[in-house]
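Session log. Operator J.P. requested a structure for one protein chain; no other inputs attached. Running the standard single-chain path with token output.
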Amino acid sequence: MGGPGNPFRMAFFGSPAFAVPALGAIADHHRVAVVVAQPDKPAGRGLKLRAQPVAKIALGLGLPLLQPPRLRNNTEFAARLASLELDVAVTVAYGKILPAALLAIPRHGFLNVHASLLPKYRGAAPIQWALIEGETITGITIMQTEEGLDTGPIRHVRKTAIGPDDDAQTLFTRLAEQGSYALIEALELLHKGALPSEPQDDTLATSAPMLQREDGRIRWTHAAGAITNRFRGVVMWPGSWFTFGTDQVKVRALEVSSSVGLPGSVVAVEGDAITVATGEGSVRLTTVQPPGKAPMAARAWANGRGVKVGTSLG
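Structure written below.
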């Protein structure tokens, strides 16, 4: 069994920075027999191979590391995992659905750390979509991994509030830490034989698919609050943007305003900002970034493009 004095023998599956705190936490409390991360990926202008954050941490901790290019029908990898005589395995943002043959290997199966209050926001981008949808509370769900996408029984939950100043970056950072705490709590309960298992109510499920570039487009017909929520949710990628002429202009900073007008039309040009009417209220753009240029005051961009009160931004 596993506990402070008798740790579980575990496998850890994870790849991005979000998974790093969880790996550090279980390495402090349990015996990590292997870390499994996705293969190194080309990045940057030179497309040099860049190690996954979890892979870097695993090597730094001296933990065995495997980076199989695929899991399905990979009999060699399955045999290697089976040979480790695992008590339990953990997945944190690993990025691939695990086949049934692997899920059956650890004695207690696989526990997944998911960054939403399931069954809401199943999928690859739960943090971003919770913000886009204007949620005021979210959290971590530790679930039993099944073959479906985030459909397994709920084992443990840890909640956190979403503040009005939170965006995807701040929430990622906080939930990564919360995930490590929730995981250790769940493993302690598992050790005691007291970890609950509640089936999800599929009728309450919502989807949180991977973001696309189009998800960053500002919909001027939406309410100012909804535009601001989307801005907060897509701030890491793809960012909020609108088109003016042939340019795709990124919005780096905005705030809700009370002015009214035709959605998409400029209703004020003052200070360093421009104010644009929306379907309900307006948004004050303070910093924008035209293609190929550094971020600048929205007023400076407007002056350079002849944007004034009454101009439509789409």
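Operator note: Residues 125 and 211 are 7 Å apart (CA to CA).
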